[in-house]
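Pilot study result, target chain (241 residues):
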Amino acid sequence: MEKQKPLPLINPAGDCALKIEFGNSIDPELNDRVHSLAGSLREKPVRGVYDMVPSYASLLVCFDPSIVSFCKLRRLLFSRAKQKARNRESAGKIVSIPVCYEGEFAMDMETVCGHTGFSREEVIARHTKPLYRIYMLGFLPGFPYLGGLDPALETPRLKTPRTKIPAGSVGIGGEQTGIYPLDSPGGWQIIGRTPLKPYDPRREEPFLYRAGDSIRFYSISREEYDAHGAVLPAEGKRSWA
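Predicted structure:
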């Protein structure tokens, strides 16, 4: 018999939002439930709901109280949140991200190699092997918090964060890896850079991915990075230029 999942907690978050909590840990099953509920609300919209913000184990639902009441929305969300989470493979797309792990793009590669005991080639091989789950977006528009990093690559954050990390930089911070979509301060160990723009407000769809999707990295040379144009060799279901 399948173990019964704990019932979600639904509480107000101000006067026009509800927070649905499935737990309080970073757990793939909890995250599946978050994105399953978000997917349900996208596919079968509720009148009055105008935005959703998924995180590791909770979903913030913003609504217009002049259209739908707190009590009515809470009952509806509770009913949907109890449903079985959808199959993850059908829940989101796979986005292939090219990364150049060379030269100045990999400013902390030596640190990661020294901490893990691996060669540069082994770090790249281990970093490009997993299919990473996008648990949530945060910190910056399009910054993905990814799960699935090989535990052997875990490396502590910098003791003193840098004042500027170039856009497109790919880094490791503890047990996670991620992409800096914009120039910004940051404390993760930088091991490469992608020529893609994870976030571009000028595009019809500003984000290359969203929470609930998956990312697969693949290695490219500096020449391929410099020659980046409309198309790059890609792996997986979908790639972007």
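One observation from the pilot: The longest helix spans residues 28-43. A full batch analysis is planned for the follow-on phase.
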